[in-house]
Design a protein that fits this description.
This protein is α+β, with helices and mostly antiparallel strands and 263 residues long. It has 2 domains: 137 residues, Fructose-1,6-Bisphosphatase, Chain A, domain 1, CATH 3.30.540; 115 residues, D-Maltodextrin-Binding Protein, domain 2, CATH 3.40.190. It is built from 7 helices and 14 strands. A hairpin with a 5-residue loop joins strand 1 and strand 2. The longest helix is centred in the first third of the chain and has 22 residues. Bound molecules: D-MYO-inositol-1-phosphate and calcium ion (CA) (2 copies). One calcium ion binds next to strand 4.
Amino acid sequence: MMTLYKTIAVEAARKAGALILKHSTLEKKLHFKGEINIVTDVDKLSEKIIFKTIQNRFPDHNLLSEESAPICNPQSGFKWIIDPIDGTTNYAHNFPFYCVSIGLEISGIVRLGVIYNPVIDELFYAEKGKGAFVNGRKIRVSSCDNLNHAMLATGFPYTIRDHPEPHFKLFQTFCLNTLAVRRAGSAALDLCYTACGRFDGFWESNLHPWDVAAAQLILTEAGGRISDYSGKQYSIYGTRILATNGLIHAKMLKTIKKAYAKK
Ligand code: IPD
Ligand code: CA
Ligand code: CA
């Protein structure tokens, strides 16, 4: 049965990705959900095509997606967790770093994750217990064990104007203690890039389940480690994520602890 879920998730991600790419050079209609939080008409079209693809096959499954109210059926243990475009600000500005994210939670556990970056036709996929892949090739996290030599990724929440200090404090600390820090604007791709060794670690706060559901499974299936900022068990419904190749996890935790202690 997992094969069918995978087929549908991949079909939905590819269909949405093609549509996103087709509209990428056209003028987009922007709507401000918050002061610096935008959504385009294409986010909504992408969501529509994903919903249609899933609902045609599984009409009674639950859907949790960024741009719509949740569709709830308490009788079903299946929940599709969807970000129709992760990296909307990038997309609206023709900055080519964005993706479609589709995760499937079964009885409270994410068992399937598909992330599709239509710009470079890269499809990341993982099934719980079966490893992680990009375009069919098995992936693994990096082997960097020295924080000084690590390239990290992060992002900032749309609420940054309200409480900038803790975000900048951590950003500064990691900039001063690593090789480099990237802030590219798609948490789902940041996690996939950590999963395949392009980044060595990633941290961010205030993300939502649709940003992380699929990608955190891809990361752990690629051999990565994931926790909250204090090293405790991570939940996609939690607010803080630290995801690494495992080898620099303890060092990043220590750095985070120090940065918060200095507040
Ligand atoms: C955003 C991106 C970004 C992260 C933001 C997210 P969106 O998602 O993942 O990298 O820093 O916190 O909300 O709005 O483009 O789907
Ligand atoms: Ca997102
Ligand atoms: Ca989004």
